[in-house]
Specification:
Number of helices: 5
Order of helices and strands: HHHHH
Helix content: 40-55%
Structural class: mainly alpha
Number of domains: 1
């Protein structure tokens, strides 16, 4: 996996607590580990099995309260979407995707482009 696709979170937890109970630093940690080592089973277990559903990125309501708290200036809601797109697909995927699909799942630019199109269509 490509290092350029890592989310630049240092795990300082200044974004916490999230009023929606999203475990932001842990999600970014799981995502970054998956990007680094490509271990689908570990990432799937950590995100889709071990992490309670209410703590997953799908609960983000894009309130943006976390953004000004982040010393790394991460667009947290956007990166939560990136992480969720990659990690939530693992439980359904179970090694069925090829290298291109995995590469695209980790391409924040492509995900941002899709999100922009979705916003434009609404």
């Amino acid at each position: 996996m490509q290092q350029q696709n890592l989310i630049k979170c240092v795990g300082c937890k200044k974004c916490m607590p999230c009023f929606m109970s999203i475990n932001i630093p842990e999600i970014f940690k799981i995502y970054n580990q998956y990007v680094k080592d490509g271990d689908k089973e570990s990432a799937d277990k950590a995100y889709n099995l071990d992490m309670p559903k209410y703590q997953r990125a799908t609960g983000c309501v894009t309130c943006n309260q976390c953004i000004p708290k982040c010393p790394m200036h991460i667009s947290i809601p956007e990166m939560l979407q990136v992480a969720n797109d990659a990690l939530s697909s693992l439980s359904a995927e179970k090694s069925t995707s090829g290298p291109r699909e995995v590469k695209e799942a980790f391409n924040p630019a492509l995900i941002r482009q899709r999100l922009k199109k979705q916003r434009e269509n609404h």
